[in-house]
Amino acid sequence: MIQARRVDWVDTAKGICIIFVVMMHSVLGVEAAAGEKGWMHAVIAFAAPFRMPDFFLISGLFLSNVIARDWKLYADRKVVHFAYFYVLWMTIQFIVKAPVFADEMGAAGALQFYFVSFVQPFGTLWFIYMLPVFFVVCKIAHDKGIPWQLMLGVAALLQIAPIHTGWLLVDEFASRFVFFYAGYIFAPKIFDLADWARERVALSLVLLLVWGFVNGALVFAGWSALPFVSLALGAAGAGAIILTSTLIVKAGSMDFLRHFGANSIVIYLAFFFPMGVSRVILLKLGVLDIGTISLIVNIVSVISPMILFWLIQKTGFGWFLFKRPKWAYLGGTFGRKTAPQPAE
Prior knowledge:
Blueprint: H1 8-34, H2 41-47, H3 51-59, H4 71-116, H5 126-144, H6 148-160, H7 168-185, H8 187-199, H9 201-220, H10 229-251, H11 255-262, H12 264-270, H13 272-285, H14 290-315
Helix pairs in contact: 1-3, 1-10, 1-11, 1-13, 1-14, 3-7, 3-10, 4-5, 5-7, 6-7, 8-10, 9-10, 12-14, 13-14
């Protein structure tokens, strides 16, 4: 069992991942609005094979600590918890974008789209929609005694198979579950890898250089999404982020990454609004190139939610945005109205 305390390299790895996730949305949004690509496009292309695999792998690291809990408590912490934030922030995003949806679909179409979002994950929020699904599948497999080798094998086959149904729930489950399950099953080995890297800095740097060259070569050759290749690159990229975050922590630098990672869900939930506003303003000014605009939008989108969270902590207003109120707990007995904490 892995102790569920804050671990610096884990938070740092999450910080790296959340920056890359926000970067993807920021860059693609700017490029779509501008009708051209900028130099940041190469960065998000390089990160594509490992960006989400590593995020899901890290999300499974501490599952062994809680998977044996009774279903009520487990469901409260691993299903209802994320469902609350999904419904809340899906509704917030929908309200913000409602005029656009109504213009495109009509009022009835927009309302239908809102209710469809309860079964078809909405926009940028699909990650926290998928996590409860993964937690439930793992809990069922654990309680039923299904061998982990069989689960991992089936998950790998789903990732390799060309599953493209158009339903995000199905497609992303097939594509991502193997990494989440691997994080759960191989957690002790993953922590051993971090310990290994901490003691072998020079060799770790060499391995990262080799990985970077291979990953980049396959991405820009157009082969990174091929069956088997994407699975291998996802696993290798997750390992690379683990090495990178461990070395960053050992060097005692870039502590902001750890802080971002410890509050990664706060950033993930709230980045959409500053992203949209900064994109519109910078494109209207028209004084910067597309790549630089994308970079600035990315920075604003990551930092703004942290400022909002800091303000909520200082004032006590809006705490429900990042902490469940008492009524949103199963039985209403687990929560207390306290200072807001990030939605882990």
